[in-house]
Design goal:
It is a single chain. By secondary structure, the protein is α/β, with parallel strands linked by helices. The strands form two sheets. The protein has a six-stranded mixed beta sheet, with helices on one face. It is globular. The chain is built from seven helices and twelve strands. The chain has a single domain, classed as Purple Acid Phosphatase, chain A, domain 2 (4-Layer Sandwich). Helix 3 crosses helix 5.
Amino acid sequence: MYNFSSTFELASINDKARLGLLSDLHFGNSSLVKAELQRDLERMDQAECEIAINGDVFDLVLPGDKRFDLAGLDRTLIQKGVKPIDAAIELAYETLKPYAHRIKFIGIGNHESHVNKHHHIDVTKILLYRLNQLPNVEIGYGGWCGYWHVRLKRHNTIVSWVQYRHHGAGGAAPVTKGMIDFNRMLVWQGDIDGLWIGHKHNKFVDLATKMNYNRQHRKVSTDQVTCIMTGSYLSTYGTDEGADPSYAMGWNLSPQQMGGVIVELRHDAEQQKYQRTLKVGCRVIL
């Protein structure tokens, strides 16, 4: 588990902190819609987001793997005339390089784990090594999962928002779209404000509610947990320019929403009789 913390200095109660959440980029896959990924990176850059990537940066289904299909390999990897792994790392590096100063951490998913297990190559750490050679760049290794503790600081007041993330696991869940995963995690996750998973290539936000009992003050409260699933950048049926159909077409799956989200955090003031407290308000921009 790899945990991270971020502190945002807010000048006024109207200022906001923004997090850019991405997953399942799948560099090296011929179904990758590069223009869609570029649009997300650009809007997160313009919104001054702190960006995190939750695994499966690479596709890398390689020869020898029973899932390998030459048609599923990005043509640019073949045209470069180098080995597929080297070419995929180069493609990821060149794409992320202009935004590297905004990236907080990059995690791994089942695709990177598979390459590490069978080929003994940690492609994520190689990519991080290259990106971290750039000026003013210090991107962390995110592993499979961890907590992200975000603090909003205004004058002498600090409030925090905590998100637990995991790349995700299991099948595509074409009917439930992964809601069962969130419900399971809510059972064993404690004091959190957000959950984030990728992997299933669906994209949605659900607001869960947890009830808490304050033993010291003997009061009951309900708190919101923002559950986020980020989508991939693969074209299911090849309807996007420059992209081939993905494996999901052969499975007769429905087209899936692409892309990441922006989480916007702000100070929320709450007045109760003579006591004024601050907490974190959250909204998600799809």
